[in-house]
Amino acid sequence: MRLFHDIDLNCFNFHKWLLSRLLGCLAIAILFLTMLTSIPAYAQEEVTDKPVTAVETLPETTDVHYTGKYCPECHEKVPKKGGKKFLKFAGDYTQLCRCHGYTPGTYIHPVNIVPSDEKKKVIPKDLPLEDGKLTCLTCHDISMQCEGKDRLKVLNKRFLRGAPFAKRTDLCFRCHDERKYKMLDPHNQLTKNGDIVVEKCLYCHVEKPDEKHARFKDVKLVGNLEVLCQRCHGERDHPANADHLRKPSAMTLKVMKQGEKQFNIVLPLDNGKITCVTCHNPHEKGVIPAARKGAKGADEKYRLRLPGRMCMACHQKWINI
What we know:
This protein folds into 2 domains: 47-182, no CATH class; 198-315, no CATH class. The chain contains 11 helices and no strands. The protein has helices at residues 2-44, 93-96, 117-120, 136-139, 150-155, 169-172, 198-201, 225-230, 250-263, 276-279, 312-315. The longest helix has 43 residues, at 2-44.
């Protein structure tokens, strides 16, 4: 009897295993078909939301992309496919894309420039120039996000031409020679003898700060701090999926000040706004004298100024310790 029981049990386990595999394959097939059908849907589906006709009071924090509602932000009137664009600002994309900033510190790549004849030879045809100039449209297919397609937003959030890419630099190396771009680690800032490598300081600073006395408000940076960090690190999800890169509330700011005193650290703000270096120390251990508060976290994992308790520096009033 035990023998037959074992046979029945084995058959049951086999069928259970087979069913789980079939369900897994079915789930993958459904996901693949969903992604596949979303692409042609972009060209075929109609926008159901009516375009916004007045955007004078539109908050700067509003994401106008992939909504299909904010045509007047860029167009004098709603264009038709294949017709005139009716762009504002005479088609100047630095003005049209003004939400992203148009200073050297906020652009990941220069725009409105005429590439050299040598460079033009290696620029792919599907990365178009505007009147011979490199513009935002060279790398971004802006028309892709003009309709409210959430599925496309998931597949290609930045509406990059040729996306998706395995790495974000894959787009860059369509025009640039990868062999000529070796990764520089700006955090290795000391020689073997312990001397500061000034060239590394200039990656972020206009001039080398006085590491013994300078405070954050005294240093001069070459550009937007977040852009400087994202040159290498890119965007990352932070705890609770929250957007930390913003101005803290009065209550949070008060807790931060208390945290600085309690934990003997600094939590520098960039013009009153939380930024990457608020929580992360970008300097190598030994650059800032160990006795200074600004030296904390230099040799810790993720360079956290308060390793293992970073959240407590700002949120200790709400954390159940």
